[in-house]
Amino acid sequence: MRDQIFNKFEWPYPIKWNTKKEITSDVLVLGGGIAGCWAAIAAAKKGVKVALVEKGATIRSGAGGSGCDHWESATTNPCSQVSPEELTMAMIEDHNGYNNGISHYIECREGYDRLLDLEKMGGKIRDTEDEFNGAEFRDEKTKFLFAYDYENKYTLRVWGTTFKPALYKECKRLGVEVYDRTMATSLLTEGGKQGAKIIGGIGVNGRTGEYIIFKAKATILSMARPTRIWLFSPGFPGISEFRPLQCMGDGHAMGWEAGVEFAMMEKSLRGLWSGERSFPPYGTGNTHNTWYACSMVDANGKEVPWIDRDGNILKKISQRYRPAPGQKLFLKGGGESDFHLYKYLGPDTLPFEDLLKQGFKLPFYADLPSMPELERKAIWGLMVGEEGKSKIPILDTYTREDFNPNRDLLQSYGEGWTSASFLPRERQLFGVPGGIFNDWELRTNLEGLYAAGDQLFASDCNGHAAATGYYAGRHAADYAMIISEAVIDYHQVEAEKTRIYSLLNRENGIGWKEFNMHITRIMQNYCGAIKSEELLNIGLKHLDQMEKNEAPKLRALNPHELIRSLEVLNILTNAKLIIHSCLARKASSKQLHFKRSDYPEMDPPEWHKFITVRLENNQVEIGEKPIDYYGSLKENYESHNKNYIGG
């Protein structure tokens, strides 16, 4: 029988169902990605006891675990021509205010500090071998390489594949207790009550099934943003989303159930990459992020123009890396391509149909051979080589198959530029998506709970995760040093244990892949590109029915399937959170990619604000925050970080 899979011949690890242990720490970090490692390091440097819980293997886990090709917002580096205040406000304005002013100011103010820390740990941030000597984007004194904006020099090209092992080593050196292969499943609250102080969390080991209670004075959520909400392929689960399969929003689901307040969860974009019809990200000719600012040509070799914000055609390649006349700076590398307040209009942003009318012929190609040698080498050898999603599947694979950037063009697919032609209903939480609302200490609305990285609303890239992780870690440690130990409610502990292990040994149950696929179909049909009260409520009803009728049939026959099943239950929770957020905003918004057929007016002034949602006594509570809730960036930051500034 299949339920005999637990015997020693079929499962390589000792099974410890229904066994439990209790771990006590001052600071508990849930999620061992970029933000989580930095949070653990910062807290440990304060001298407190730190436990880090990671579902994968911390040495390479998380969305940034396999690498990153650039580090945004290092505005305090010695070559930068932009202040933290200038860049933060540009990012806020670029999204019409719908951005996290606090977390992005932290990113701009402290991002360069984290790069210098990484260098001390063994991470590579400079062209120490002089591979790019003489390049326009290289500073000869510091040996820094810059990306996107060669004039203002606040985004650095980096060797990001060296970062995660260095962070892991530093965690171990500082005595952080790392619990790998352990999935955090829920938060512990004082008295077991929703909305109460957070006093730790629960976890289950993905190899042994052991149940672990983590008791802590302060807890930091530093897990991934939700994925697999609209896109999932049972046949090709590994390419279901832009980010790794296991990075799917456990922390959002745990936070929602505990009573955490969320903002901007109504925002979603039409799918950009991934999915079973897609090519691997950055594996087709394009001009996005890693490939910026590659030349593009049509089937006849005719170059597709680059245009500045004023509509002027850029005749020289070097112009693509500099602001237009009269423009202070421009943003490139992250976020959406739909708004261009601070961006150049690369070939990929020009209306596809207009190009065909102008006589351009399909297919289009990335023309690396026509680029200057060091620009070509930076794109293909460095950026593609250090970006975690492209080093192995793209650089290594294409090179092995004899792709030569000095000789070969690389074709674009989909709608001219993207790697797939996504339907409007196939969506993702991308760019700067929704997440947990935070204050100036990166604390949530619940006492004892902090958030960092992709858990925060309007999260961004590696530099944002690093800066906010370190920031949350030191503030959580300060809190832990003045608070008394909490008392666990063991009724809550036993209830969670029962929930987890009830998934085991069900006969004729539902597999996790089918369950996930069902969620995506509901979300595509009822929470797609165009929304309405009726559609959203039907979708919510179907999700409630899934929770009532199908969730009790989920089946797990080993610890691996147990983790996957707990994940899809969290995906179900996140889908409901998204629909509640969509119902709460009764207006359409361009910047939020949010369209309601029953409220078609786009961005009415009275709705230019953050809409928040949270659970209180298991009822959805809707709130609002002013668009400039963060106040004075510099003054508020400095009033909350006097010791850091002084030290």
Care to give the gist of this entry?
The protein has 647 residues and is of the alpha+beta class.
Please tally the β strands and state the result: 22
Structural class: alpha+beta
Poorly predicted segments = 1-8, 334-338
Question: How many alpha or pi helices?
Answer: 15
Assess the beta-strand content as a share of residues.
5-15%
Describe this structure in words.
- With 647 residues, this protein is α+β, with helices and mostly antiparallel strands.
- Among the domains are: 289-411, no CATH class; 504-622, Methane Monooxygenase Hydroxylase, Chain G, domain 1 (Up-down Bundle).
- It is built from 15 helices and 22 strands.
- It has helices at 34-45, 84-94, 101-121, 163-173, 250-258, 352-357, 373-386, 391-400, 462-480, 490-501, 512-526, 533-550, 559-584, 633-640, 642-646, and strands at 20-30, 50-53, 70-71, 145-146, 156-157, 177-179, 182-189, 198-205, 211-221, 262-263, 269-270, 296-297, 303-304, 365-366, 410-411, 427-428, 435-436, 449-451, 530-531, 595-596, 609-616, 619-626.
- Strands 1, 2, 6, 7, 8, 9 and 18 form a 7-stranded mixed beta sheet that branches. The protein has a 4-stranded antiparallel beta sheet with strand order 17-10-21-22. A 4-stranded antiparallel beta sheet has the order 13-12-14-15, with no helix packed on it.
- Helix 1 links the parallel strand 1 (20-30) and strand 2 (50-53).
- The N and C termini lie far apart (63 Å).
- Mean pLDDT is 92; it is low at 1-8 and 334-338.
